[in-house]
Amino acid sequence: MAEKKKFRQPKTFEEASQRLEALVRIMETGQMPLDDMIAAFEEGRALVAFCNAKLSEVQHRVELIKGEEADGSILRERFPEPPQT
């Protein structure tokens, strides 16, 4: 059985997305040897998982912010009431 390649972990969602788009363009040409195509597919799956994890993190953060806004706490922190004179 062939050894799985280790892929460089992207640092950002944008980096992963750009690499994924590049892999798709290359794979769509049909000019890759089969072993390279399989490696590109495996890397693509890892990139999709990375992107999904990042999107889940962002969605969670947005939900937290929305919850804080609903009770007013985040708004009070950012826009405190002026002192009464």
Give a quick set of tags describing it:
rod-shaped; mainly alpha; 3 helices; 85 residues
What can be said about this structure in brief?
By secondary structure, the protein is mainly alpha-helical. 71% of the residues lie in helices and 0% in strands. The longest helix has 38 residues, at 34-71.
Characterise the protein shown here.
- The protein is mainly alpha-helical and 85 residues long.
- It has one domain.
- It contains three helices and no strands.
- Uncertain runs are none
Elements, N to C (H/E): HHH
The radius of gyration over CA amounts to 22 Å
Question: What is the count of β-strands?
Answer: 0
Structural class: mainly alpha
Give the N-terminus to C-terminus distance in angstroms.
78 Å
Mean pLDDT over the full residue set: 85
Summed up, the helix count is 3
Largest sheet descriptor: none
Strand content: under 5%
Overall 3D form: rod-shaped
Our count of domains comes out at: 1
* Fraction in helix: over 70%
Q: What is this structure's SSE topology?
A:
Elements (H helix, E strand, L loop, with lengths): L12 H16 L5 H38 L1 H6 L7
